Amino acid sequence: MNCKEIENIITKFIRDEVEKTGLKNVVIGISGGIDSALVATLAVDSLGKGRVFGVLMPADKTAIQSDNFKDAEQLAKKLDIEYSIIPVTEIINMEYAIGNIKAFTRELRLRWGNIKARARMTILYDQAMQRKAIVLGTTNKTEMLLGYFTKYGDGGVDLEPIADLYKTEVFRLAKYLGISDNIINKPPSADLWDGQTDEDELGIKYSELDQILWWLIEEDYDARELKRELNKLTSIKDDSIIEKVLTIMSKNYHKICMPKSCKIGNIDIRTTIADNIRCNDGD
């Protein structure tokens, strides 16, 4: 992995795509996790600190004491970017959203987690409108392939700068760019409820996930072929992980597709609009 080359590709992507919008600034939700830290760092490298605005969105006022919040604020200060703090529960009331509950079941945790993710998306777009900015996403390739994000939550953004980097590559690039060890070494988490971690929720370690996804996606192995060759190609011993990964991908596939439109006429509206814009731009 050539970190310098990848840094150059991503910073150029951010610069070029922001310029196309006619806007100058970007807004990013900074969580204290490695993905948002990496995107914020690359955005500053690309645009300069004066054009990057961070939004810290703890679950509630008490979460301001959490390690994630402290790491997020420390990153914003290190990058020397302007930022605001907007607790999610200031925007949405849990009891109003899902009722007055006595205990969280798994289903209720997921519902509340999705509500928080979508509230954060709403906050980011409001801040973007105020600052004449676009919203940068923080989803990596591992999450994208698995559909491991909230539809119209952290999946609701304008640009995805690291969506072609596997999670293990995110760690390597973050280390190369000098991101804090506090952020790099903590268990990845979407911070949707207390104690939640990505690997616990998925039931698979990222180091194993990326090996499986690499051979399925980059090397175009089918599941049966990979199962036969698993011990030779990877460090993984249990081949049941392949079915687990495929099940997650299949279950969440709808998240990575644009909403389908009922087709009546002969015109594909998205293609037609894109073609007209390119013509008007002289391309």
Q: What topology emerges from the helices and strands here?
A:
Layout: H1 3-21, E1 25-29, H2 34-47, E2 52-56, H3 67-79, E3 82-85, H4 94-98, H5 106-130, E4 133-135, H6 141-146, H7 167-176, H8 181-185, H9 198-202, H10 206-218, H11 223-233, H12 240-251, H13 269-280
Parallel strand pairs: 1-2, 1-4, 2-3
Helix pairs in contact: 1-2, 2-3, 2-7
Structure, explained:
The protein is of the alpha/beta class. The chain has a domain at 3-200: 3-Layer(aba) Sandwich (Rossmann fold), CATH 3.40.50.620. It has helices at residues 3-21, 34-47, 67-79, 94-98, 106-130, 141-146, 167-176, 181-185, 198-202, 206-218, 223-233, 240-251, 269-280, and strands at 25-29, 52-56, 82-85, 133-135. It has a 4-stranded parallel sheet, with helices on both faces. α3 links the parallel β2 (52-56) and β3 (82-85). The chain starts with a helix and ends with a helix. The model has no long low-confidence stretch (mean pLDDT 88).
Query: What is the name of the CATH topology of the domain at 3-200?
Result: Rossmann fold
Unreliable segments of 5+ consecutive residues: none
Name the helix and strand elements from N-terminus to C-terminus, one letter apiece.
HEHEHEHHEHHHHHHHH
List how many beta strands DSSP finds: 4
The strands making up the biggest β-sheet line up spatially as 3-2-1-4
